[in-house]
Structures are given as C-alpha cells and as structure tokens.
C-alpha cells in the first residue's frame, strides 16, 4: 500500500512539473533561437486583463541567421492560449519577415521552432 501511495505521489509531482510550460517573456527581442522555445505573456503585469475580448495582434519576426548559419533560417510558429483552450498554427516565418496573428485579450503564448539557428522577436500590439 505504501509503495502504491508513493508511486501515485511521484506521478502527480512529475505531471505537475511538466503540465505548465514555462517560457520566455513576451515581449522578447533578438532572442537566439537554436532549436525551439516557448514565449509567454506575463500574467502579473499591471493592467493585464485575462478575460477581455479586445482584439490585438501577436507579432513574430525572424531576424535572420544566428552565428555562421545560412541566411534562409525559417521558423515554424504555433500560438496558443495559456488556458489551453485554443492553439493556432503552424505559421511559417521566412528569414527577414514578420508574421502577425490576430488574438483576443486573453493570455497567450508562442511556440517557435527552427532547424537552423536564427534570431526571433515576439511582441504584442500592447507592448508598443
């Protein structure tokens, strides 16, 4: 019985650690993306309303190759609500371009991945 209880507690602890993705803050500018990264809005910032239907945009810019990589380093982007109810994408962002995705006033995150190192900037229209 003790072994089963210990196993159940261990499983719950491991699940709780991986259940919420931790991420870099939005806004983030000129971040060196080597393979993949999560970006998330700061829920504690002043004036942040997690339940607003206000329309706004999240912007993702592929700044170009990091280090000695080739110029054509594309990024694949997924945009997701932090409450887990909505995921949008994949969106393709070629080197030197910006992709703008419409979102609402809820809290959002961005998952970005690349096969070649590049620099990425992620911000919302609130951050201007």
Model description:
With 128 residues, the protein is mainly beta. It has one domain (22-127): Jelly Rolls, CATH 2.60.120.1300. It is 14% helix and 45% strand. The chain has 1 helix and 9 strands, in the order αβββββββββ. The strands form 2 sheets. Strands 1-3-8-5-6 form a 5-stranded mixed beta sheet, with no helix packed on it. A 4-stranded antiparallel beta sheet has the order 2-9-4-7, with no helix packed on it. The termini are far apart. The relative contact order is 0.29.
Q: How many domains make up the 3D coordinates?
A: 1
By helix and strand content, what is the structural category?
Answer: mainly beta
Could you give the count of β-strands? Answer: 9
What is the overall pLDDT average? 80
Largest sheet: 5 strands, mixed
Summarize the structure.
This protein is mostly beta strands.
Characteristic terms for this protein:
single chain, 128 residues, mainly beta, Jelly Rolls, 5-stranded mixed β-sheet, 4-stranded antiparallel β-sheet, 9 strands, 45% strand
Topology (SSEs and partners):
Layout: H1 2-19, E1 24-26, E2 28-33, E3 36-41, E4 56-65, E5 75-81, E6 87-93, E7 98-103, E8 108-113, E9 118-124
């Amino acid at each position: 019985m003790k072994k089963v209880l210990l196993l159940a507690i261990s499983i719950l602890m491991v699940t709780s650690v991986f259940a919420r993705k931790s991420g870099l803050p939005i806004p983030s500018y000129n971040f060196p993306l080597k393979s993949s990264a999560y970006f998330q809005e700061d829920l504690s910032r002043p004036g942040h309303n997690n339940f607003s239907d206000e329309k706004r945009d999240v912007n993702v810019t592929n700044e170009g190759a990091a280090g000695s990589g080739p110029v054509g380093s594309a990024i694949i982007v997924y945009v997701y609500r932090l409450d887990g109810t909505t995921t949008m994408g994949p969106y393709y962002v070629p080197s030197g371009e910006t992709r703008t995705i419409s979102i609402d006033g809820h809290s959002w995150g961005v998952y970005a991945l690349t096969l070649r190192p590049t620099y990425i900037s992620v911000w919302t229209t609130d951050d201007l």
